[in-house]
Amino acid sequence: MKSQHDGFSENFLWGGATAANQVEGAYNLDGKGLSTADMIPHIPKEKRGNSFAMDVTADYIEKVLAGEVQDRYPKRHGIDFYHTYKEDIALFAELGFKVFRLSINWARIFPNGDDKAPNEVGLKFYDHVLDELRKYNIEPLVTLSHYETPLALTRKYNGWYSRELIGFFEKYAETVFKRYKDKVKYWITFNEINVITHSPYTGGGVLVEKVKGKTKEQVAYQAAHHQFVASALVTKLAHEIIPDVSVGCMIARMLTYPATNHPEDILKARQQNNKNLFFTNVQAKGEYPSFINRYFQEQNIVIEKEQGDDEIIKKHTVDYISFSYYTSTSVTTQEHGEKVTGNLIKSAIKNRHLETSDWGWQIDPVGIRIALNDLYDLYKKPLFIVENGLGAYDKVEENGEIHDQYRIDYLSKHIQQMKEAVKDGVELLGYTAWGPIDLVSMSTSEMSKRYGFIYVDQDDDGNGTLKRSKKDSFYWYQNVIKTNGESL
């Protein structure tokens, strides 16, 4: 007799994940306002160094708006999903998707973020997308805020550093909850909420230099507190408005290992993991853990709270925990170790046991099993892997075929470890591979860093026909879904 933990459940949600700012385009059509993502330029690799193209300043934004800077902004155009969603969703249906993760661009609904009334044309667009998903029986998984803060809120209030954004976010969430209450069951409040401490602009539309006399950490954690309160309040709203709703939080799971068995390395790795899991502690357990309170005290970080904040956070915890997983990292207290780069990790110690991707990210399939077990042991809430994938260079053969065995190998090994975690007893709701269709990279605004099962004919300079083509991985993932993960 087959155990319930021998493999993925019959209702396991297989699919893929995207973000509005990386696929939609149409940045200035149908009443949409500018978002923070629309200000992130493409910086060629040879000019980038160790910095990320997402570090934007207030001065730069004003110069762009005044026409004094002429850079290229790939996220303004994405892959034109705004006009090709029917074609793309048909391809997702052909893959066999049970779920599709998308985000709503806040500035498409409230162009300035603080508008009195929503933009009806923006609401209708998502109506059409959701109806198209329903046509193919694909469950939508919708992120409310995926690195898409209305730019006007950044310029007027300095983004999530201002408490005023809580009310604006509530109004936005209530609007889309009421509009799509019969179409969307699964919601995520903030994408990779912990990234605000790595890039306050990306994660919260915050310009640190505008806050005088405070460190980047102080500013970022204060903004994160406002997001915690907002997340709790909209979770409450969702439960009041939508029958049988399920609301999740999300972190970028940055699993950290000690580089050696030196006790100080082990302690440092534990502290790094704690800082990463602080965000799930607040949203899943409803409280600030003691370790972060000590850290705040030692770093002279003071979180300004209003009366009732802690009670709101405690009362309205999430129903499930979602996370992205791409790579692991290692740390050491010793004066040695080769450095590597990774997503939002500007320097980490190279793990000699792991291979690396074209972009220097260490490939660690076993880490996804560790991450799943750690999260489930800590919180005993259902888990959802909502991003996982390999960014790589793809070559189109003369006959148009794309042989991406490297992507198949990466995903196959990670899905196998997911299966092992399920056998360990982890309650896993689903898996949405990141970038099922090639899209503009979040961190570097490149197209050449491709994740998709579906190739999009567009280069880093924005040239191309935007034609969609199936890669070898398309047929592989189609079979994975068809066999519920048995055929890898």
TrEMBL record:
Residue ranges of the TM segments: none
InterPro entries listed in its UniProt record: GH, GH_1_N_CS, Glyco_hydro_1, Glyco_hydro_1_AS
Source species: Alkalihalobacillus trypoxylicola
Name by which UniProt lists this protein: 6-phospho-beta-glucosidase
Entry's Gene Ontology cellular component terms: cytosol
Active-site residues, Swiss-Prot/TrEMBL: 387 (nucleophile)
Origin superkingdom: Bacteria
Assigned keywords, A-Z: Glycosidase, Hydrolase
Pfam families per UniProt: Glyco_hydro_1
Matches recorded under SUPFAM superfamilies: (Trans)glycosidases
One biological process term in Gene Ontology: carbohydrate catabolic process
Any one GO molecular function term: beta-glucosidase activity
Similarity annotation: Belongs to the glycosyl hydrolase 1 family.
Gene3D superfamilies documented for this protein: Glycosidases
